[in-house]
Amino acid sequence: MAEKTFSKEELAQYDGSDGKKAYVAIDGLVYDVTDVKPWAGGKHHGQTAGQDLSTVITKAPHKKSVLAKLTVVGKYTG
User: Fold this and answer.
1) What is the C-alpha separation between 76 and 24, in angstroms, rounded?
2) pTM over 0.85
3) Nearest-CA neighbor of 29 among 60, 2, 6?
């Protein structure tokens, strides 16, 4: 299967609302956070799924350490 590439508009569709999948982009990769409990409903600490959170994650206490636990679903072109 070819790797999916997400534009800003495509990524925005994966905001976790109304049963949709919740994806976030970080450093050019798109991660699936759908089944991550803190991301229930596509929201986590004031952030919403469906966005590029590359700069936001650097300010989080966990930094990028959580990314290894997530599934990469594609690349982000912005």
Assistant:
1) 9
2) yes
3) 6
CA distance between the termini of the chain: 22
Domains defined for the chain, CATH in brackets: 4-76 (3.10.120.10)
31, 68 contact by CB (below 8 A): no
Are the C-beta atoms of residues 57 and 28 closer than 8 Å to each other?
Answer: no
Q: What mean pLDDT is predicted for residues 49-60?
A: 94
pLDDT in tens, 6-27: 999 999 999 999 999 999 999 9
Supply the DSSP string of 38-76, one letter for each residue. GGGGGEETTEESSSB-HHHHTTSTTTTGGGGGSEEEEEE
d(CA 53, CA 1): 26
